[in-house]
Amino acid sequence: MEDINLHMFREYDIRGVAGEDLTEELVCNLGRVFAAHLKANSTKDKLSVAIGRDGRISSPALAKSLAEGLCLGGVEVVDIGLAPTPTLYFATHHFHTDAGIMLTGSHNPPDYNGLKMVRDNRPVYGEEIQALKKGLLAGLPPEAATAGTVRQEPILDIYLDRLVADFKPGRPMKVILDCGNGVTGVAAPGLMARLPSVEGEVLFPEVDGTFPNHHPDPTVPENLRAMRQRMDETGAELGIAFDGDGDRIGALDEQGRVIWGDRLMILFGRDILKAQPGAMIIGDVKCSQLLFDAIGQAGGEPLMWKTGHSLVKAKMRETGAPLAGEMSGHLFFADRYYGFDDALYAAVRLIELVAAQPTVISERLLGLPDIFSTPELRITCPDERKFQVMERVLAEQRRLGSDFSDIDGVRVKVPGGWWLLRVSNTQPALVARVEADSREGLRKIVAEVAAILEREGVAFPSWEEA
User: What span, in angstroms and rounded, lies between the C-alpha atoms of 100 and 86?
Assistant: First the structure.
């Protein structure tokens, strides 16, 4: 068997450079191992797996290899073709398949690709991904006595109909959507056409894995420039951008200012808590303290949890929370929906929420205290070093007796604010975030974090103050 880059097997997906780490042969073999894993955890005679792929150049060939491997393992394959990741999640519900696998590089550079997996409508992550790695290293399972077959099942129109099934139209609105040449381009125009009283347009819907206009990562303000410009030109009051595979959302208010994921959570949380007082609302460790305070003030039960779409979905299922979200724009609605991260559905809910009242979106956040923060900062650090650096930083905070949470990396409370440092589970990087109640305080805390990292030989990136 070919040499395998074991760093691909991450906390909640398998991801690497296509053709180098993630070859067609390896993906075929992963399909066989996944089929064997399914059989080992089921008493059913016949098993089925839905598969889909994003718009990256490597995705069609890798999806074909994945289907071949699954069939060699004896499972039936339901291929939904080119579609956003949440469409694949929806397909597992609609077709009642035993599992689902999405070929996607998410927000990584164009040469990356990967596999996001679900089994029995639950995310495959953590130890289960490591079990797949061990199965692969142990040698391929024998081919099934009866090979599986592949059937094509286009589902996009059914999915789009479900997105708007319970949409409550409000006042007329003008909205700009930005697909960034990611795979949401196959869905966004149809979604816009299904929303009554909504006027607008879709930017860059042409699916192109080279991402010629801008990278489809809505957490980077530079990637929202074209949408902001078009909003100015058309007078649109809301802009919504999607990441490359459609499970993360970015938004701009009527003044072209970024509404980060945690502030979207405040809006959604307040709305849901009117109907479900006392409900638990989950935010990841990167979220502002404003979110947790606002949920408590609205009568909800805030819970800070680990970053990672699989980890959040598992915690939602465990707690019964109707809403969860991450600073990065993963939003999870179990209220009126299935509980998985779906940026297109989040867009529908955001448009509905804004259109329900005469006030623009920025006015609904005016009561929040002023804070000063960095965006989510990704700090280059090789995969083979990042965990070691994280352990040393954590050990230092323990030695100093700091007030911190180690639920996911280290989030340290300091006078006037907090800072976070954690390991990225998707890239060779550390992730940092800093928040303070004054601009001067922010600069001071940032300098402290930069000094900590410099002692580890890691350069803190430049950033623009919010």
Answer: 11
